[in-house]
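Below is a filled-in request sheet from our internal design queue. Each sheet records the structural input a requester submitted and the sequence that came back. We keep these sheets so that new team members can see what a complete request looks like end to end.

REQUESTER: design group, bay 2
PRIORITY: normal
MODE: inverse folding
CHAIN LENGTH: 293
BACKBONE (tokenized):
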């Protein structure tokens, strides 16, 4: 499918967005708290589980995403659990936003806590339970696998915590933003977990007050930014034409950006204040085999 900037009103990605500026229709914005819980595989006949579909499955504009199958917030209340699910053609990542619980993957039960991130292999049967006294909240991310995924994904569950990953500066993004490189493909030599196939990079950005993630674009990947802490201005522009398209954003906002969208972030934190943080994920666009990177 050709994007052609999706100019027609019926296909405009901004239709369900709260953004009111006239930036090119190359992105979607959601605010987690404003999205109503919807029925989902994870909540079917489950106890104390609710799911807010931010992008992909369950969202009215799911067809706008090509490599990303689902992206949403799952909440398991105290004493609750999700349904067990399995997706043979989809690899999944969980990121624990708050609380404590257990992820069951196959015959393995793995305790999880805030800031854990997990890779769940394609076809694995998995669920989440919460035996604590407070709610467990996590981001659920799914990525479509082609018939012949490349590189091959990890066949086992992998887990780490952001506290185990050092902050580092990446020269291409300027000195005021530092990165935690959480997860990459099985070919990765730099990420904490070399686990995935189509999910190209999961990373956390930490912004010094007034810091900037220099606006840029990705020719081969779709991307989602989720504001974990703070506020600022999100760059979501027209791609290679360099139009930044700056929009106010705050904690709990999620942004989907199609390939070639100009993307970046300007921190709203003041000197001496808490740093802004964004969790970002990129996924390889499903080009025909002849065009795959």
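RETURNED SEQUENCE:
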């Amino acid at each position: 499918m050709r994007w052609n900037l999706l100019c027609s009103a019926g296909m405009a990605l901004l239709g369900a967005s709260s953004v009111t500026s006239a930036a090119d229709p190359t992105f979607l914005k959601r605010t987690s708290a404003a999205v109503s819980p919807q029925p989902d595989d994870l909540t079917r006949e489950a106890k104390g589980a609710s799911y807010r579909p931010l992008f992909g499955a369950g969202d009215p504009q799911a067809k706008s995403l090509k490599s990303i199958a689902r992206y949403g917030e799952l909440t398991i209340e105290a004493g609750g659990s999700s349904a067990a699910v399995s997706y043979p053609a989809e690899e999944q990542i969980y990121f624990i936003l708050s609380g404590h619980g257990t992820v069951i993957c196959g015959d393995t039960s793995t305790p999880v806590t805030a800031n854990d991130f997990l890779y769940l292999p394609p076809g694995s049967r998995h669920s989440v339970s919460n035996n604590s006294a407070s709610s467990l909240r996590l981001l659920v991310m799914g990525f479509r696998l082609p018939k012949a995924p490349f590189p091959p994904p990890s066949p086992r569950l992998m887990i780490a915590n952001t506290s185990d990953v050092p902050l580092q500066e990446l020269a291409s993004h300027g000195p005021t933003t530092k990165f935690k490189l959480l997860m990459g493909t099985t070919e990765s030599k730099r990420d904490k977990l070399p686990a995935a196939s189509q999910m190209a990079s999961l990373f956390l950005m930490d912004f010094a007050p007034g810091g900037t993630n220099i606006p840029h674009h990705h020719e081969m990947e779709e991307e989602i930014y989720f504001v974990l802490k703070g506020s600022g201005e999100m760059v979501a522009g027209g791609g290679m034409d360099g139009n930044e398209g700056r929009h106010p954003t705050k904690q709990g906002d999620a942004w989907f950006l199609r390939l070639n969208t100009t993307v970046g972030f300007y921190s709203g934190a003041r000197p001496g204040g808490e740093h802004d943080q964004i969790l970002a994920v990129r996924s390889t666009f499903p080009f025909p085999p002849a065009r795959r990177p």
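SHEET NOTES:
- The first strand starts at residue 27 and ends at 31.
- The domain at 4-291 is CATH 2.60.120.10 (Jelly Rolls).
FILED BY: M.R.
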